Every structure is written in structure tokens, then in C-alpha cells.
Amino acid sequence: MLKAARKAAKGMGGSDTAAAMAAAQSALAQIATALGVDGGNTAAVLAAAHARAAGSAMVTALQSRIDTLESAGKRQAAEACMTAELAAKRGIPVKDQEGLIALHMQGAARARHIAGLHPSVAATGTAALPPAAQGGQIALSAEEVSVADQMGFSHQVFLTALNDDRAKQKGL
After folding, report:
1. Following CA atoms 50, 52, 54, 59 in sequence, which dihedral angle do they give, to the nearest 10 degrees?
2. Contact 60/53 with Cβ under 8 angstroms?
3. Tally of structural domains, the chain
4. Mean pLDDT, to the nearest integer, of 138-157?
5. Taking the alpha carbons of 87, 92, 94, 97 in that order, is the dihedral positive or negative?
6. In which region does residue 107 sit, left (phi positive, over 0), alpha (psi from -120 to 50) or beta (all else)?
7. 146 domain-assigned
8. Rounded mean pLDDT of 150-168?
């Protein structure tokens, strides 16, 4: 539109400026129509053009904000999933956890599948943890009970002997 007005003005050699002005006014009217304002008011056309440019920048800023919020929400959901897997005693090495979080942010089902492939490290009874104290006294472990039985001692006598040995070791 504006190119046509410029061409018309150049072709006239400056002698017929009224025709050039008419062509420019026609182009301005078409631009005003595209912007949805009155074509006779150049200030309104200019303001509408600026508003459209500002609106475009605002849309871009809002889209960026939405993307940031979506990413934060996905990260939070991924971290919650990882916390749940670890609470379920899933043996996921620390070095793999961040990668699984990133994968979860892209596709939750695949990340859950991969996390499920890691072994469970829930209590298996193979740990040699001492039994909890009962009434303030230490109880015999399964291994100690077995030793007492093989030696022919009662469990109480064996426990008393162990406690005496522990007391002597603390005194050293």
C-alpha cells in the first residue's frame, strides 16, 4: 500500500503532490482499517499501531510467564514422584535422580517405568542390626540366640554374660 503511494509520488516528479497525498491517504485508510480505527485520524492510527506492538510484547511476556509456571509445576510433580519412589525404598542412585526428574518433566509414564526397574531396597532381614532395647535392656540378636543355643546356655545367662563383657570393655 505504502509502496504504491511512494511509486506514485516518484512517478509524478514532485509536480503533482496532490495525487501523491491522495495515494498516501488511501494507504493510511487501509492501514487504519486493518488496525480497526478511523482512517482520517492519523494520531489514532499511530496510537493503534503502537498499542498493537505493545500488545504483542505483552503477549510474549505473558507466554514466557506461563511457560515458566508450567515448567515449575512439572518440576514439582517430578520431584514429588522421585520422593515417593525413594520413600518406597526404590534403589535409585543419587547420580541418576536428576536425570529421572528431567525425564519425568518430559513424560511422566516413561520416568515411572524406568524408576520401577530399579530394585527395591526395603528391609530384607539380611541386615545385622541389633534388636531394639526392651524395658531399657538390650535383647539378644538372632545370631546371639543361635550361639547361646549351640553352647547350651540359657538366653538369660548368655545375655548377662554379654552385658558383663560390654561393661568391662567400657571400663577399659
Report:
1. 180
2. no
3. 1
4. 82
5. negative
6. beta
7. yes
8. 83
